């Protein structure tokens, strides 16, 4: 892990419903290159909103997000170019149901990176091999199990060779016996040095893989630190209460 | 029985054979098909544009920054809403007569004017079918496309629209079947379509039974044929439903 900052978030606020609902109330954070940051917190704490603000799927109401030195909240910035460098994995996979697995993976690189079909497919097949799904290249998403879908969703994002991967509760929609296979892929990714921001309820994963754990509540970061510090020596009362409920 | 049959034969001869009256039916059928086809093309063009404006405005409501472009889009969105309200809120016969007898009263190209009228009307319905199809696609599909770096138009083209086409094709084809039957009111603006042709024969022979039954049977045959095609398309779409 190096110390250079990949994403810097300053004073991030997000309001919904014409300002009546404050999902984020001034969040400051840094994501360093190569770091695995796990965000935990009760539902409604703003953790998913925070993650979705990082690639502007949610437009922040106030504050600034700097990604690789560029202020992406600046209206003049072409966000599409920067999103290519920020892979995202969703709770509900969001694979394209009308495309085969291979097409799901090669569609964006071929269109946006001007890769040849052959080069993109070679990359895709390598990635499929790594997640143990090379035999499913020609399958359609509805022929896959939830765990397989999510592994495909991960490698689809990886096909764009992102600098950071954002995970929005990647295992929450899975049957329990399929959680492991997805977490294994994520662990492998972390070992390879990918910068990751993971919103999850998998505390085991947070402990094992996380470099840093952020606890959010009420649209704010309440406490953060190493997994040991957060899980073994929590300071804040709300964090203690939260951990008491889930551990 | 014998006389009944003789009478039928006489009626047929009178209405279709004598003075080649069958030509009223064939020219009318040709015009009906031409009007339907042209109205269909215009309707799809109008519908796609309106659905594009309306769904783009709605889909980007949360993420767009206030800007001049947004205001322009908002203006066109309002315009499209008015268009849909007016065209769906008034009878198509009235619209046809306004176009043929008021706006383009100087023109006597009935087929072109009827195509225009039915096309503009159909466009309002097609727009809502397509817009419904776009809005029915899970928002996660948009988000997945955008998160990969596709811009709005690319996400539409590569991810959303292929799924929309599949979902709305049966509804669209049913709309066209309805359109075919709707064109039967073209005679109100003196456009010589199939119904008008049958009516013309009846006016000359003072016998309504045969010409109108013939007209009805032709519509029925056309509709049954198109419905059969829709069924085939639907089955085809289902069979590669992924």
What does this structure look like?
- The complex is a heterodimer of chains A (247) and B (242).
- With 247 residues, chain A is α/β, with parallel strands linked by helices.
- In chain A, 37% of the residues lie in helices and 26% in strands.
- Chain A contains nine helices and ten strands.
- A six-stranded mixed β-sheet of chain A has the order 6-7-8-3-9-10, with helices on both faces. In chain A, strands 2-1-4-5 form a four-stranded antiparallel β-sheet, with helices on one face.
- The longest helix of chain A has 16 residues, at 176-191.
- Chain A is globular, with a radius of gyration of 18 Å.
- With 242 residues, chain B is mainly α.
- Chain B is 82% helix and 0% strand.
- Chain B contains nine helices and no strands.
- Chain B has helices spanning 2-17, 22-59, 68-89, 92-103, 110-136, 139-147, 152-182, 194-205, 209-239.
- Chain B is elongated.
- Chain B starts with a helix and ends with a helix.
- The model of chain B has no long low-confidence stretch (mean pLDDT 93).
- The interface between A and B is medium-sized, with 33 and 24 residues.
